[in-house]
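Please produce the structure of this protein holding magnesium ion.
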Amino acid sequence: MRPRVVRVDPDRIDPDIIRQASGIIHNRGLVAFPTETVYGLGANALDAKAAAGIFEAKKRPLDDPLIIHIADKKDVHVFCEGVTLDAEKLMDRFWPGPLTLVLKKKDVVPDLVTTGLDTVAIRMPSNPVARELIKVSKVPIAAPSANLFGRPSPTTARHVLDDLNGAIDMILDGGKTEIGVESTVVEVIGGKIIVLRPGGTDMEALRETAGEVELSSDTGLAQNSPGKYPQHYSPRARVMLVDDSPVQTEEVLRTVAEVSAGGKNVGILAKQEHEGSYRMFATKILGPQNDTRTCASRLFHLLREFDDDEVDIIVAEAIGEKGLGLAVMNRLKKAAGPDMDVSYDPERSERNF
Ligand code: TXA
Ligand code: MG
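Below is the modeled complex.
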């Protein structure tokens, strides 16, 4: 069945629509809703049967835990224990907003939601539609990104419908999401603060608030982290990641020419600065490389557009890893997969398509 798609103006939310959505949540149904990062696919986080529906709709493996979303900071103590001073500091500075904390869980959180872990990921979104839905439902809402497992996260209601038509009950359409990449996932257990997934809150801001913050790829502690599935966030097209040194740019052009001569459709995801450099090929502009917010907000949308254009191979230029650039590059590397990331090894650009 096609889900009901209902337009909601975040500045003038119709309480009736939120009541209907929360009715669905209480009937173990699934409601997709906008957050400031990406669209989430929501179910009652305290009801294992309801949450099971999320895994089914997304075709998500049962060992990939969900984030629970709350509307009131104090609720963190209802669902988590051992909330450290560092965690409090981070919540005070970044909530509501694009930061997810991984903390020790309390028993009220069903094991299915955390896939048997003794920790739970929790966040308080700032998007008014998300907050109203949680408030009116009076339960925390478990919500992964509202895409089919492995696909780029949705930044519009249309993307949700493209992936999950027939599998969910309702989509609250609050327009395009602002940040465009998912929240930063941070584990704050014991004395350490470890970023498991870079996202909408950047490392610089985290360090400013909490001092020493590690990135999980630096610590080798990625077990249970969002990075454990190597290929993720992928469009249907194959992604080839390249840096933008002049040598590489020539190399890219040669490879692209070869590939397209072989009858493949090639698209280029370029920085604003290189607009026009690849004139012969279908190019989409991610954004100015120093404006990492713009790059982040456009990334998933453009990857999906390439799919709509039936592109076979996307050649994506790397950007710097400052600010949200770290999250953008993390998603691009995952979309490329281990074999297609040639950003730091031009030797490997001779691949077999
Ligand atoms: O911005 C976001 O975070 C969006 C919106 C909807 O809130 N949600 C989102 O959820 O991106 P999801 O499920 O697509 O990604 C959450 C990631 C998962 O890959 C999961 O592995 C990780 O967070 N995660 C969840 N619980 C965890 C836990 N207890 N320990 C470590 N990682 C966890
Ligand atoms: Mg996801």
